[in-house]
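Risk mitigation, structural track. In case the binding assays with 2-keto-D-gluconic acid fail to produce interpretable data, a predicted complex structure has been prepared as a fallback.
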Amino acid sequence: DTAEQALDGLGDVERRTDDRPLSARELRVGLASADVFCPTVSDTIDALVLGDLDLSGKLIANFGAGTSHIDVAAARAAGAVISNTPDVLTDCTADVAMLLILAVARRAGEGERQLRAGAWPGWHPIHMMGKQVSGSVLGLVGFGRIAQAIAQRGAKGFGMEILVWNRSPVASELLAACAARQVGTLDELLARADFVSLNIPGGQQTHHLIDAGRLQKMKPTAFLINTARGTVVDEAALVQALDQGVIAGAGLDVFEEEPRVHAGLLQRENVVLLPHLGSATMETRVAMGLRVAENIRHWQAGEPLRDPVA
Ligand code: 8YV
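Fallback model:
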């Protein structure tokens, strides 16, 4: 309610009436008619949608941190300014990364499915044995806010050794605060980690960063964890790697073409699949809504945006 009230106080608000993503046409109409448009990750605002729209002076206030569903350059060229909602979903998303690590390593989904199916044979010394998370090596691809929060959880909560690969050097104080060590190459991280956790934005630059070749670099006992964007992983190559035992399993909260999920993943026991719920707690979604409202207030007052997307 607090987020709804905050929005109501800002002007005439037209709300969506259902959960489905907006069509290209609906997006165009929304962008053309409103001063402020608030898309979600499901709303693809690409050059085709933007076309020749004039968005001068308008605000696209994204409900979420990641903006790879928006062609930011094209939207800015059309005259819009863009904001997002970082920070407020950091802890929530890091929690889900840990959830995926634990669930896939300790075979939680598989075990629960067996039990619910009435197929639990009873306790046995080697029944449903998994991989020990405590004391293992956690490799973080990218070291933004969410990765740092995962590092804290892994190091402090589970005594994990934390390795980081990042495109640019990370300040030594920041690494020390997270008990993390930066490695020189992505391949080095892939070769050493028991869990490879992806924490980089989507978009062209990171498209299929984790492809068949990179999966081959991982240990056959290692798990891939993705709470970032589905496009970072070549999903077909991942399925093939799982089929061939190239890696031990995967925990995924995001997919290449949401809400479609590769059929080869759905069949497998050694993957944990979540429906993009990294930030899905009431506390976090309210905080995201309030952050959208804050950005709108700044824009209305002619002040610099709270969270500008450049
Ligand atoms: C959001 C996310 O739920 O913020 C992000 O980047 O991926 C999710 O946590 C989503 O973006 C909502 O639009």
